[in-house]
Amino acid sequence: MKHLRFWFDPLSPYAWLAFEQLPQALEGLSCSVDYHPVLLAGLLQHWGQKGPAEIGPKRVWTYRDVVWRAQQQHTRLELPAQHPFNPLVLLRLALACAPAGGTPNRRVVEKVFQHVWHGGADASDAARIAALRAELAPARDPASADVKAELRDYTAAAATRGIFGVPTIECEGLLFWGADALPMLRQWLQGDPWFEGPAWATAAAPRGGVSRQ
To answer: Which residues of the chain have pLDDT under 70?
Structure first.
């Protein structure tokens, strides 16, 4: 059995699309999945990047792209009233539903994603978050120092592994980034020989090039 880590931030519509498609991508395969919350803003800061929603024309394209992709894969997706927003409260809530040192189960992660991507409301609305917390009934206090530290640790661990964005699916040291990487992940899980040959390593070989200062 292969063990996968699904790194996500509910801020990302692509993470929601990948989450919904993951069972189909893994159909017929022997796999287990852990869902790891991570602060995308922390990863972007670590690698010196901007998020898609922080660049005007890219933000417009991203919203159109995810709405199109959602209807193509028959996934419900309504853009929230405000985006981007601060997802820390939702990330900590998801993590608080797991035991110390653990990860939230798929049901919890699904509810958090749906809070953002179903209905088009404000994901940061205090009353809505309170209702979600009541529904999930976390075993730990999402505002506790332990939960906050765990989220920081997960984000740091993701960066150490070379994760630069979400969704990223990790398995046996390999990283598959983006909702559109699911077919690639499935082929690897099925034992496609391409991944064992020279092409995988050769494609990532260093190449001299111009560097921006």
So the answer is: 213
